[in-house]
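Sample entry was shown:

___
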Amino acid sequence: MEETNCETTTIILYSIYAKSQRKKRPSAAANLLFYIDLPKSPYSPKYSILDAAFEADMGIQDGWNAEVCRVKNRSKNGKQQQNEMQFRTIEPKILYFGTPVALVSSLNEDETTDLAPISSFWALGWTMILGLLTETKTADNFARHRECVVNLPSPEMWQKVEKLAPLTGKNPVPDLKAKQFHYEPRKFEAAGLTPLASEIVKPMRTKECPVQMEARVTALHQLAGDRLEELGGGVGAEVEVVRVHVASDFILKDSYIDPTKWSPLIYNFRHYFQLADEDLGKTFRAET
């Protein structure tokens, strides 16, 4: 442990496990809070548990390990201070730090609708940028027919979204996808979803999605980057939303989305999440 001018260290023990069975011990001993003089602290970066002597001193039964949740410093003036944040340099395979999922409808050559999940997109006003890999059916369709629907699924739909994930409308399946994906021309049926006619564009909407945005593709931007090239390259599709459909349960004051009711399906490092039930606050520009 690095030297510090603090008098004591606060160690929060958040759970106690049996060494043999690894079951959480049903005891009030969990969530204990101890103040330990630094010179006597049994905590060491070399160990993930507290030593046996400390367990005996604290009355913890022999054979139980106490895992350290976090360490805080208590300064001389009595105020607790969080240890300085430490950083490491890593190279994650993906940078999906938590973005909404969309199901993008695009028009096939035979004028049927392809449906594909994406999680790389953002909006500014009524203009959106959709991030697509070059070797996808959606990218092919956009190059040929410049219309789409951006459907936003609810968190409860994650399993239907996942049914779409390993499917591609490209036949044959590109070599880069061949090990994990398979060809499926009937995406709606495969995922248990219902096509719904759009009002302005040709691609169909997804009836089960609470938000459906009809849009026109205004530009396709080739994206660069060595890591992206390893995936076959990418395209940033610029689309302009021309009509927005929202389930009435989520509408507030005729033209607002109620943020207390609506939650997108979040894609967070290839896991599905939803927003918390309560907000943290609102921006100064909020009108509701």
